[in-house]
């Protein structure tokens, strides 16, 4: 079953959200140069090829940066204020924003290994989040 992409997006990235709902992390991989890209795009930014394939990647990476939000930007997060949001550099090369979960924000250290987790965020559906690597 497909539901609309969260946050009113165009749908170009619908496979990303559909797979997240199933607990899989997928990105477009260029069929010409194998560059893995996010956000979804009709043209590879590396070689300008138009053909790509949605490919599952390992949900592992490192904490590149983070901030602690003191305001809920989604109503369903209001009860979780303050909550940390991270920029994670995945091992596949993509940098992805997501909440830090399953840890105290004070324990977050840039460069620490993380792994993807999935969380339901009300009307937005299932979204990738990140916690400490096991």
Description:
By secondary structure, this protein is mainly beta. Helices cover 6% and strands 38% of the residues. A 5-stranded mixed barrel has the order 4-5-6-8-7. A 3-stranded antiparallel sheet has the order 2-1-3. A hairpin with a 5-residue loop joins strand 7 (113-120) and strand 8.
What's the average pLDDT? 91
Order of helices and strands: HEEEEEEEE
- Net shape: globular
What are the low-pLDDT stretches, counting only 5+ consecutive residues below 50? none
- Percentage of residues in DSSP E strands: 35-45%
Q: Compute the number of helices.
A: 1
Largest sheet: 5 strands, mixed, barrel
- Terminal Cα separation, in Å? 31 Å
Fraction of residues in helix: under 10%
Number of strands: 8
State the strand order across the main sheet: 4-5-6-8-7
Structural class: mainly beta
Cα Rg: 15 Å
Quaternary state reads single chain
Structural key phrases:
three-stranded antiparallel beta sheet; 1 helix; 38% strand; five-stranded mixed beta barrel; 134 residues; globular; mainly beta
What are the SSEs and their pairings?
Elements: H1 14-21, E1 26-30, E2 36-37, E3 52-56, E4 60-69, E5 83-90, E6 95-100, E7 113-120, E8 126-132
Parallel strand pairs: 6-8
Antiparallel strand pairs: 1-2, 1-3, 4-5, 4-7, 5-6, 7-8
């Amino acid at each position: 079953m497909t539901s609309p992409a969260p946050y009113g997006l165009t749908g170009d990235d619908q496979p990303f959200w559909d797979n997240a709902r199933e607990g899989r992390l997928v990105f477009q991989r260029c069929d010409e140069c194998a560059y893995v890209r996010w956000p979804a795009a009709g043209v590879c930014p590396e070689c300008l090829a138009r053909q790509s394939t949605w490919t599952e990647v390992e949900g592992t990476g490192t904490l590149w940066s983070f901030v602690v939000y003191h305001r809920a930007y989604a109503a369903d997060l209001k009860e979780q204020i303050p909550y940390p949001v991270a920029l994670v550099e995945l091992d596949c090369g993509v940098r992805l924003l997501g909440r830090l979960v399953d840890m105290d924000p004070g324990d977050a250290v840039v460069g620490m290994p993380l792994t993807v987790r999935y969380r339901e965020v009300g009307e937005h559906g299932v979204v990738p989040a990140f916690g400490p690597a096991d």
